[in-house]
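ok trying this again, last paste got cut off
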Amino acid sequence: MKKTATILLILFMVTSVFSQVQESDLIGTWSVIKLEINTANLDNIDREHYEPLKKALKESIFEINADKSFTLKIDFKDLEDYVQNVIWSFNKETAMLTVNDRIGGKNEDEGTIIDFKVYENKGQFLFTALDDLFYLYVKKDNVSTTNPEYANKTLEIKHGDANEFSDSNLANIWTDANSLNDLAWHAYLEHNDIDVLLKAIKIIERSVALQRNTFNLDTHASLLYKTGNYTKALKKAKEAIESAKNDNIDYSETTKLIDKIIDKL
């Protein structure tokens, strides 16, 4: 339990720097749309836990409820049962959201399970985990957390079967830039079929047309790289970095992508 507690005490921070977050901004259900790794900090985590935790975080869901209850839905044995039905508090001055067990209470150190710092920039949130090892780009879901069909609806498009790229699924998210980016990024990570990847490029182009941002520009560059369009991939990756600089978002993973693209040119 001590190792688990140590992991939990350094888990989940949100970083960016522009607008001040209100407590009401946090209330809702958040799902991960993209995960990046800061490999320089790998020594901060037991290697035995690294791969399963990385996979679990990519599919994790955070529920921050108005009644102060907090739930983390994650398929990771050291966390999944420990962070259920706990309470949260928010310090607006420090932008620090703290999750406590109900026995410890918010003023007792031994009751603290998770601390994470929260900043929001142009509607985008970034959760960093394990002392800046994992960067979790998240979106707020519009589905009520009391709906038992919530999880299936959320994951159907990201990790569904052959229908995940169907016209009906695309129609449901065609005006949602974040969901389109989510689906395109999933295609980049999980698919190698050229027809699927080319369709994903059309999907991410639609996302960029709706709301051009660091995240979908990076996804666009990644898909172009994977399909062998290296010159255009380099251009889009540079655009993603420029956007990240403007919004004070970490772009280390995009820099690594550029290095891979240059190796191919």
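PB: full thing came through this time. Residues 230-247 form the longest helix (18 residues).
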